[in-house]
Q: What sequence folds into this?
């Protein structure tokens, strides 16, 4: 701690920080542009000037950039000094000389940091009489809009895109006052985190193009705190609604999880909510769906559910509440996980390892602190994008033995100091990954080789760990090097996951972690609630099928799950034939909903309250942003609860709130102890007031529905949460788990998050939201055995494994037009030599047999792919769901 | 006593003054052009809609009776897809006009908008849009804005340099 004097008043502050963040932490309004809490300082914009004095007697002082000066004891500075104030006003005036007269048509307006800072410094009249500089814009793809005239040359965009996120195709061009931020030529921004440019850029140069399609100002949104549904990391997001449509996703700060950023799949994948494929009407056998109102749908559905003769199939892409409500309705013994046996057993194993306490399960923030990382069989940019970003930060910090006195915020100096020295990163994956450029070694191996490499590493560290089988000399050498680097590290981290569906990977990773004793271990799963569903510990889909085939069960309730994505279509078809009633609850039409005899519409995450459990076992709640006019669109758990009430003869009016449901979960399944703390009780109030989802400037309340009826309808009530759907309520800072939007007086842009943090870049006031459910420390008693069974592949046989695509592999985000545009078409990937042997070129048709049917796909030649391994993109076709399999390629070599 | 007579006298004198009351509706009061009555949406000198859908009027409105949705044409010119004013709520404060950066929304000296049915006081864009420029002739926002919305090319605005050639190394 140090004492500093700001305008002659003493403050106790933390050392090692710069003056800007210190002033902001203390609550002062000090303008800035180029500094960013996640990216540090470069001192480029000169906006954050303050005056620093030598000592008490110094009256002249010197103007300095507060972002470039460290806190030191007894330091005296002045924010309100007349020279400093004038200096800051001049800087804004200069920045504004070329700024276009665009605010009215600029998407940044109303959430613009430049507007905020201009108002803050008091500049309001243009004295500069000369002409303004102009630029041509570029086409940057379906996600980001470019309007270069608005640039103030703060360099934040390139610092984020290139230095922080590792992007290659955005840069600064030209010289002096002509500098240009863009691509070398028009084209789609390639980096998976490009959407953050819209938040990082303090002006309207880079803005969200999908928002432009239905543009709404920030003050007009009804927003809700939400959680991303598109991978297992559970990044926190803000979901924003206007006129009954979901219109924008922005990142919601969570110091433990995603920090300031989210990936493009999470930001732009929201449009499935507004998709024409949405289920809006119920279907009940052949009845006219128009007659089905909520009440008779409930009654008729309830009549079909016979206790004991009904089974339920849960889903990894819906909330804990919904899964639990289904389990409660049909009984624990009739509840099944809606995933394949293969995936379920993989999850079970992961949970076993996580619960064993052999390793610490880090949050994304803690991943950034690792000093040696090993990634086994995951392409993180495609399977868990934000984890890739966290790994990059850890590695770019440089090796731990690189000692420096430079403070952590001094980003440019640190970059110069570190140069190309990276912390050790090792990647073993069938394909190249984008992190390879940072890796000490990146090995493209077959799944079996990756597993054996893992065992070899563990065996090197601790010879009690089972020995590897069949590894080449060179790979053994690699294993030795990796083992050495990992044992040397203080915070080694091993990352693996379910992408390639290999149990061996989990076991090998666990063995390495155990051998290291103090390792961090991070698992990646497929879906947003994969781990939560796994924790419910129910039998898999195949068991449900068996149950129906063997018993006289006749009704199945399928909860938000397209079974055709889970197991072979033949199996699913046979299963559906055996069921008399197929009750499907879902929000988008898919192959399963077509088979439904009863189809019940449900809300997406934007229309629902619920809780998800992410890959580190953190329970996080999302809240309803959108209030559907259609009474049939309500949360699955509400439908199921209402059915439960009907069955039990309880009045439906006795609503169960999400909090109560979570408490029930914790009672029914002790492994979820504490989960109810993830949400506040619905009667939580501050000064007797709710937290409003709408800002106080929300407009159009008395006109937006006036074309239907000039008398305004009663505002929607929220009985489930402490938030309101209106602008009335408590105007101060909400509790961290229910912050619907960031705003603070004078801070309209997302930078206002500063005001919500205990310390800049640290936890939110009251602690970051989310409850970690996995804290067990039982200790894994013994190493996993190495059950190595070599796979014999015949001449025409290949081992087909799934690969993840950030755009395409996820079931929901693919319904966003921009994501569809960027998703690959189905293909099969083969090694170059393999293709040559088959006499095939890139793009030629490959015919192979899988699942009893013949499939033909275009070929992608992938140079680095190990031989006799074929890759198929996950999620793009039904038959890809039960990989890995052995497939027979039918294209015969003609020249033989 | 005297003061009573004086008051009667002074009051009676008013009988010979010029009348302030006029026979409305036969006669109409002359209203100043800046009188704050019915709201219109005007057009720019080129006859295009002036409103750029910036939502500032809606935000300024103290009774929240303006609702609109911005959209763009093929030239990326932004305009309102719908624009609705609920005159049964409007208090004619003129804040919307003051907030408008384009002179699009203007209050005009017409107050005769009474209706038997309140629903008829909900005006849509076609009811609001007039064919002229209203009180402020000559202004065309897209000519002074930086972006290219099909009105002028980049760098061709009144106050703009030609676009930078980013390949040039000259100072
Ligand atoms: S970047 Fe900000 S200040 Fe500039 S035109 Fe856009 S809203 Fe206005
Ligand atoms: S484009 Fe935005 S982030 Fe980049 S330099 Fe310009 S103002 Fe800064
Ligand atoms: S990393 Fe995953 S959870 Fe985070 S924003 Fe991307 S898709 Fe969503
Ligand atoms: S303030 Fe003017 S330009 Fe903006 S939306 Fe209203 S009428 Fe249109
Ligand atoms: S924020 Fe300090 S110089 Fe830019």
A:
């Amino acid at each position: 701690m140090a004492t500093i004097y700001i305008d002659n008043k003493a403050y106790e502050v933390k050392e090692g920080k710069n003056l800007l963040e210190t002033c902001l932490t203390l609550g002062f309004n000090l303008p800035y542009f180029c500094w960013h809490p996640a990216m540090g300082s470069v001192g480029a914009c000169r906006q954050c000037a303050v005056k620093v004095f030598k000592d008490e007697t110094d009256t002249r002082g010197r103007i300095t950039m507060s972002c470039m000066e460290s806190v030191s004891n007894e330091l005296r500075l002045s924010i309100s000094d007349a020279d400093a104030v004038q200096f800051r006003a001049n800087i804004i005036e200069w920045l504004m000389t070329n700024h276009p007269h665009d605010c009215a048509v600029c998407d940044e307006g109303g959430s613009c940091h430049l507007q905020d800072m201009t108002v803050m410094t008091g500049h309001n009249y243009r004295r500069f009489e000369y002409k303004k500089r102009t630029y041509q814009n570029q086409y940057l793809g379906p996600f980001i809009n470019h309007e270069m005239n608005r640039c103030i040359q703060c360099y934040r965009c390139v610092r984020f895109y290139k230095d922080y996120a590792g992007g290659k195709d955005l840069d600064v061009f030209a010289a002096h006052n002509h500098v240009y931020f863009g691509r070398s030529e028009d084209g789609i921004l390639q980096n998976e985190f490009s959407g953050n440019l819209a938040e990082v850029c303090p002006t309207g140069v880079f803005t969200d193009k999908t928002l432009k399609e239905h543009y709404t100002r920030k003050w007009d949104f009804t927003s809700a705190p939400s959680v991303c549904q598109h991978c297992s990391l559970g990044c926190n997001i803000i979901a924003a609604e206007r006129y009954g449509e979901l219109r924008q996703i922005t990142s919601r700060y969570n110091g433990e999880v995603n920090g300031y950023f989210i990936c493009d799949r999470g930001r732009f994948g929201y449009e499935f909510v507004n998709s024409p494929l949405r289920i809006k009407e119920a279907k009940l056998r052949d009845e006219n769906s128009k007659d089905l109102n909520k009440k008779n749908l409930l009654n008729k559905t309830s009549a079909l559910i016979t206790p004991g003769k009904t089974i339920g199939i849960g889903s990894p892409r819906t909330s804990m509440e919904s899964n639990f409500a289904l389990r409660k309705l049909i009984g624990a013994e009739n509840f099944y996980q809606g995933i394949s046996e293969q995936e379920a057993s993989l999850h079970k194993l992961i949970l076993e390892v996580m619960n064993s306490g052999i390793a610490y399960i880090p949050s994304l923030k803690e991943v950034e602190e690792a000093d040696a990382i090993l990634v086994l069989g995951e392409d993180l940019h495609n399977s868990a994008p934000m984890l890739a970003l966290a790994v990059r930060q850890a590695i770019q910090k440089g090796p731990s033995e690189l000692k420096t006195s430079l403070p952590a915020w001094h980003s440019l100096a640190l970059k110069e100091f570190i140069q190309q020295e990276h912390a050790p990163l090792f990647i073993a994956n069938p394909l190249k990954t984008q992190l390879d450029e940072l890796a000490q070694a990146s090995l493209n191996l077959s799944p079996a080789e990756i597993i054996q490499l893992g065992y070899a590493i563990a065996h090197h560290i601790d010879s009690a760990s089972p020995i590897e089988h069949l590894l080449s000399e060179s790979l053994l050498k690699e294993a030795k090097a990796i083992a050495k680097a990992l044992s040397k590290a203080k915070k080694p981290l091993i990352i693996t996951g379910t992408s390639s569906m290999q149990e061996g990977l989990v076991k090998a990773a666990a063995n390495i972690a155990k051998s290291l004793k103090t390792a961090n271990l991070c698992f990646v799963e497929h879906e947003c609630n994969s781990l939560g569903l796994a924790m419910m510990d129910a039998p898999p889909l195949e068991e449900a099928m068996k149950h129906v085939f063997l018993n006289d069960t006749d009704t199945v309730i399928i909860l938000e799950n397209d079974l055709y994505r889970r197991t072979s279509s033949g199996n699913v078809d046979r299963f559906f034939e055996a069921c008399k009633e197929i009750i499907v609850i879902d929000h988008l039409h898919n192959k399963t909903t077509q088979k439904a005899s009863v189809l019940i519409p449900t809300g997406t995450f934007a229309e629902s309250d619920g809780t998800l459990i992410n890959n580190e076992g953190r329970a996080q709640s999302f809240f309803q942003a959108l209030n559907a006019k259609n009474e049939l669109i309500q949360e699955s758990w509400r439908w199921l609860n209402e059915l439960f009430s009907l069955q039990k003869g309880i009045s439906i009016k006795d609503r169960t709130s999400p909090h109560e449901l979570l408490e029930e979960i914790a009672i029914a399944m002790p492994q979820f102890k504490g989960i109810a703390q993830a949400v506040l009780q619905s009667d939580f109030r501050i000064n007797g007031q709710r937290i409003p989802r709408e800002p106080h400037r929300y407009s159009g309340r008395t006109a937006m529905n006036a074309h239907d009826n000039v008398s305004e309808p009663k505002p929607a009530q929220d009985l489930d949460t402490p938030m309101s759907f209106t602008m009335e309520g408590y105007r101060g800072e909400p509790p961290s788990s229910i912050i619907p939007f960031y705003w603070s007086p004078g801070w309209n842009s997302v930078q206002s998050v500063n005001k919500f943090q205990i310390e800049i870049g640290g936890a939110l006031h009251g602690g970051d939201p989310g409850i970690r459910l996995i804290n067990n420390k039982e200790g894994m008693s013994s190493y996993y055995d190495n059950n190595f069974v070599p796979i014999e592949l015949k001449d025409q046989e290949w081992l087909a494994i799934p690969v993840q695509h950030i755009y395409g592999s996820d079931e929901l985000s693919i319904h966003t037009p921009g994501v569809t545009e960027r998703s690959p078409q189905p293909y099969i990937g083969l090694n170059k030599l393999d293709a040559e042997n088959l006499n095939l070129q890139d793009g030629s048709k490959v015919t192979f047999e899988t699942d009893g049917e013949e499939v033909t796909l275009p070929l992608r030649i992938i140079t680095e792919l190990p031989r006799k391994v074929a890759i198929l993109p996950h999620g793009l076709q039904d038959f890809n769901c039960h990989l890995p399999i052995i497939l027979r390629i039918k294209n015969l070599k003609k020249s033989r | 006593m005297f003061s009573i007579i004086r008051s009667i006298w002074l009051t009676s004198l008013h009988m010979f003054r010029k009348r302030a009351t006029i026979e409305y509706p036969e006669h109409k009061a002359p209203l100043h052009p800046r009188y704050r009555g019915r709201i219109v949406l005007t057009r720019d000198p080129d006859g295009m809609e002036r409103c750029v859908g910036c939502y500032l009027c809606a935000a300024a409105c103290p009774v929240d009776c303006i609702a609109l949705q911005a959209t763009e044409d093929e030239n990326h010119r932004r305009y309102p897809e719908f624009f609705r004013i609920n005159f049964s709520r409007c208090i004619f404060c003129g804040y919307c006009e003051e907030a408008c950066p384009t002179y699009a929304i203007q209050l005009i000296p017409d107050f005769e908008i009474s209706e038997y049915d309140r629903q008829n006081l909900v005006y849509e864009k076609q009811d609001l849009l007039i064919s002229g420029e209203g009180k402020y002739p000559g202004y065309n926002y897209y000519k002074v804005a930086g972006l290219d919305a099909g009105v002028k090319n980049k760098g061709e605005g009144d106050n703009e340099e030609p676009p930078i050639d980013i390949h040039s190394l000259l100072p």
